[in-house]
Amino acid sequence: MSPGNEPETSPLLLPSPTTTLSPASSLRSPSPSPSLRQQQQQKAHLLRTISLLSALLSSLCAGSITVFSLYGHILQSRLHYTQFQVNGLASAASMAMYIPVPLLGYFCDRSGPAPLSLLAAVMFGAGYAGAAGAYHRACQQQEKDGEEKWFVLLVLAFVAIGVGTCSMYMSAVATCAKNFGRGKHRGLAVAVPIAAFGLSGMWLSQVGSRLFSSRDTAAGEEGEVDVVRFFGFLAVLLVVVGVVGAFGLKIVDEKDLIEDAVEELERSGILDGSAIFTPGRSENGYGAVIERGDPFDELENAGTTKNPEEEEARLKKQWVLNAETRRFLTDHTMWCFALGFFFMIGPGEAFLNNMGTVIKTLYPPTLHYQGKPTSAATHVSIVGITSTVVRLLTGTLTDLLAPSPKARHVQITTTRRLLSGSGSGSRLSISRVSFLLFFAVLLSLGLAGLASGLVQNHGDRFWIVSGLVGAGYGAVFSLTPIIITVIWGVENFATNWGIVAMFPALGATLWGLVYSAVYQAGAKRGEASHGGGGGGGDGDNLCYGEECYASAFWAMAASVWIACGLVLWAWKGKNGWAQRGVVV
């Protein structure tokens, strides 16, 4: 925000009557000499490049859970799991991937991305090694007496995999957002690691289906992935990548980022920087959670163990991040936006997790088909390609076409006056929300097309569904964090994005259960009619035909339409972003 804009009428942190000099401007270090400044810039550039490469490597490997469809149906056919059990494993990973995100994001903002990458290495190693062992023993147990004794261990393994996915993904995206998210290419800075995350599913599915395909019919159908060997490969790969990230992921010039945020909040009138250091002030205002005495006393007490300047910077960072977290949580438009994300991403997650079983329903055993049936690996790759392309496309197009606010931090405007000075000028501009709504509609069309029976008995048409869902899912997952950085800034990005990213866990679980109920009902009806309408018979828990999925995916499409309404309300509704003059 520019200094000329009017502040809010009731700032949540009152200025200190005894202090007139702002720490944000008075505590900065003296300007270095030109030669030293050039060395510092070169070092910062090198660190940013290393961090970017490390973040891309992490993102390109972190999405291993997105290839669940590659082996989900094998768990069903080989271990005789029900669709509820298979979805239980997928839901365990989804819940573990999303529920800890706020906590991990909070930790990432305050401690940096490197510890998260190391945590990811531990979780992935334990998860995939445990899953490989549990699956192998479960297969042996099935061969002996048919009892299931390893399902709980598989669930725990997939919980660890979910936590590892969350940690590696958050560390990579937060690094790029903070290192590059203040420039004019902030959309691309966030979209690149997210696109790489989507690309990970594509290349991992091809590696799994080609290099780790089963050669033994006793371990699965010929040509399908050998689950034990594939899990072992993922365990080794992701441990190595996590350790590399622990050394390579760094936030460059974070102190300047916090200083700039303090200045922005000071100019807004929301935060008086001198209040941060006011003796005996109760922290019951903006972003405050505790009662504290004079912070200078804390500096003096900590002087024997910590550098006073470093401790001062830490206290200032903590104050600013807590302030921005408080503002984020008390913004009603955030909750509306987060609910919209919940209703959009949940159906997409359920589709990805169950794509393998959906494809199986397209080929009833009572019918004969020409050519080879389409495979889950093919459509995991299609989803990966489309989502990657669309993520990069939306990041680039929104940088070029969307309006950009003058402020590079949290937008706190309450009038429409800022719109005239948003920096968009007279050029054509398309809001980021418009892009989000457009691709959400594409996502719903893919789900509705599947529900309509468009591809039943025509697996060669399934690319239409996977392509539309991949494009919509990828764009929504890319544009949502971009919008968060534009409206609420980058300094507290991991915490803010973590709060919103928690919602899809519930959505994925909800729609996974809905699909499982519809599928199992179809399987039972098929068994009752000896395979006449949908089931595979012989108690194999398999279902065939449109009735196995149609009603579930119609409901998912409707969920996305509701989500569009919620996002539209956050944008254009009462006291929404448009009314408040927030540039998005």
Helical percentage:
55-70%
Give the class-level CATH name of the largest domain.
Mainly Alpha
The first-to-last residue Cα distance is 14 Å
The largest sheet, given as strand count, sense and whether it forms a barrel, is: none
Given the helix and strand composition, which structural class is it? mainly alpha
Task: Count the beta strands.
Answer: 0
Global mean pLDDT: 78
- Helix and strand run: HHHHHHHHHHHHHHHHHHHH
**Number of individual domains:** 2
Percent strand equals: under 5%
Radius of gyration, rounded? Answer: 26 Å
According to CATH, the homologous superfamily of the largest domain is: MFS general substrate transporter like domains
Shape descriptor: globular
Topology-level CATH name of the largest domain = Growth Hormone, Chain: A
Which spans have pLDDT < 50 for at least 5 consecutive residues?
1-28, 277-305, 414-425, 530-539
Count the helices. How many? Answer: 20
